[in-house]
Design goal:
This protein is mainly α. It is built from five helices and no strands.
Length: 126
């Protein structure tokens, strides 16, 4: 068995922190949850944005190795599709909710009584 490499510890640490963040989010009150979601879903500097950046970087690495024949081209293509899908979903659906989360976050204290409940709308995609 090979000794762990530095990127193994880094990856394991990130995974543990994401699990910890999910735990905090699941226990948060509405205002705290909005604060967490605002930072997580930020498509530029938040967790989602940095995750997209990591997948984009992975795509370029896979492309380089696919062009030299080390990786199958399908790996590069799958990563490219993933970047496109995640990017489109984030931009089309999550960016438009950023302002709503910001309003909740800006409320004084943890009083969420003033937040109006909105009906959940189910969209059909064709």
């Amino acid at each position: 068995m090979h000794p762990p490499l530095p990127h193994d510890a880094l990856t394991d640490g990130i995974v543990r922190q994401l699990d910890e963040l999910a735990g905090h989010l699941s226990q948060a009150d509405p205002r705290q949850a909005a604060q967490i979601l605002t930072r997580v879903l930020d498509t530029k500097d938040g967790v989602l944005g940095r995750m997209l950046h990591l997948v984009v970087t992975s795509t370029f690495v896979a492309q380089r190795y696919a062009e030299t024949g080390v990786y199958p081209a399908e790996v590069w293509l799958a990563l490219s599709r993933t970047v496109n899908t995640l990017g489109n979903l984030a931009i089309d659906h999550l960016d438009e909710q950023h302002a709503a989360l910001g309003r909740i976050t800006a409320q004084a204290g943890s009083d969420t009584a003033g937040v109006k409940a909105t009906a959940l709308v189910t969209r059909r995609h064709r």
